[in-house]
What does this fold into?
Amino acid sequence: MSSYYYETIPIKREYTHIGQFKKLWSTPIAEFVCTLSNINNIRDTIKKIAYQKKNNADKSIETNVSSKIKYNIFESNFSFLNLEKQTSLSEADSKNLCEIIDWFKICISDYYHVFFKKEKALSEIRIKESWIHITNNNGYHGPHIHQNCSICGNFYVDIGESNIKNMNGINCFFSPISTDLSIDGYDYYSTADTIIPQDFKLTLFPPNILHNATPYSGKTDRIVLAFNALYGSANIEHI
It folds into this structure.
């Protein structure tokens, strides 16, 4: 197991004791900001396809998943980044989607390299599911986890007017260690942590971490591209 995951720190007090301090079950959440030279064109492609899907959809939650915890949000089906299921893609749009898919895989590879000290080919990273969220008018996504994947990603295509100060359209991650205690000396962790919204930022996180998106309103829509990925030997059918 990675030394990062189970970090051990020696503790010694002369003439008193020799011991060690273990950091167990740490939660790896990573943030990457895309600096590809073509990122603005990539964003244009994603937004164009996103609104095409929304305008042609016969319902707001195409995935049919957890509809009761989603409000004023359009959620496409799970094949947004599956080029074989995209119809009438131009050569430029297809190239742009391929470029961002490759970037996602590079980020996932770096995530696992730092966390697990493993080197694997990018071909071993598979996007299992991918979908778009378009939110406004106090739209939100309630707390949830993901299933049957190795790692999850949220990519800010357009943050609109999201901001932490007003908790407007903010993604929050909740501690996997739950307790109601708040006494002094028991503050090992915070109940939740927030992600500072930024265009072209990708957040990678484990699928078992409870997370949400707070209500968002603004002059422009908040647009997020999300995905579930499989890594290495994970053998689950992917889209």
The chain has a mean pLDDT of 89. The CA atoms of residues 4 and 114 lie 8 Å apart.
